[in-house]
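Problem 12. The chain below contains 457 residues. Write out its predicted structure in token notation.
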Amino acid sequence: MSEAKKTGAVAEIKCSRQYWTYGADNPKSIKAERNIAQLAEWDDRLTPAARKVLDFMIDWEHDARGDSLASLRHIVAHLQARAPEGCAIAKRTVENGIACLLHAGWIVRTFKGTGQKNASRYVVPADILANAALGHMPTVPDVADGLTVPDVGDSTVPDVADGLALTVPDVADKDTTTKTRLPDAAMSSSNDSDGAATPPLADGLAATAAETPPGFESFWNSYAHKQKRKDAKAAWGKLVPDAELAATIVSEAGRWAAHYVEHNVEPRWRVLPHNWLAGENWLQDLPIIHTDAKSAAISKTRGSGKANAPTKAKAGKLSKATHAFAEGETLLTIIKADVVKGAASSTLAIVATDETGVEYNHTTFLEHHNSDTQEAGQRELGDIVRAAGLSEIEDSKVLHGLEIVAVVEGGKLEFTAPLERKPKPESPTRTSRPLTPAEQRACDEAYAAWCAEQDAA
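Solution.
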């Protein structure tokens, strides 16, 4: 083959999916490692933190064994040591990155350890580039016996199977024995667990050694917010789901868990497992995520939270008493929305007017020492945000001027969106400094050169 034809053949390969495997036969070669890192940039499931951790694990694999540990402290320490001046990476960020890689199938376990001194080991699958050449991203392999058992202690992060994400709770560096660090299934999984047997499953869900149908343990591991296990068991027992429903619940629980991981939602803002089941959240959309402590992350279960009593309207203005909203529908325009912080709670205080100018005051808990009260407030906040036509908010002031509908049926208050909205006022046109003649000539020349290159290609 002539040199020109050979060059053309290589160029053709590089412009196809065969690019991923070309010259990367040795999975430990620099070319293969570079291609894996490039491929990760195409995977929308991976967060920036996950890509940093993946780069580390590719480079850290032991030559003798071909795999590596996934010690959280170890990875954090080395990434921080590598970080350029002025850059840093938090422990929580690394935790979420590792969980993201496990969930997406970018790392898999090769050896199941028994604790800190005999830790599990992980590897980047050798067939990642071969699958990429076929047009496929990594996936979590099917596991015959359901979910793998997460390890105990500090040494490793939890394992994931069947595409279900597990997150690592926020644990102090020196605490390697706390039960909230995703213990082995044979141990108590939360501070509320007494090790009692799982409630009886419905017909068709009897477990066998070779095949474990979806049941409570699958849900418990899938949702991965391991709090109030007794209550969660009781809620699962009340459902008595058949095989199809149990599979749906487990799948949706995993989706919620992955959503929490993706958005770095603190455990305190996550819906408790028993409330998630009682509220039938597997039928709901994923929760809206807010980026600050004021607005908080919210659940998406509608109508399960008790409305808070409104505050008294300002003197001299028309007002509605007690519940504030009359039976039926009331179209409201929000004129004020502020976060009010107390000693042990915070609330969103909304002032709105109806079509006749009557003013209503309503408060919703964002934070509260009672978890049920807090969750009810978060659910109501979610309804308000969606009713206003938003997917998320960073500041309560974005609610100003937006319309929502308060619906009261049998004394129960819900918020929903109006069928028709007033057009939003247009944002003021952003002005900028005009280019100088020299800057304009430089831009024109650069653009002309780029066009010439494209025409010649």
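Discussion. The first helix runs from residue 3 to 14. Students who got a different answer should revisit the alignment rule from Section 12.3.
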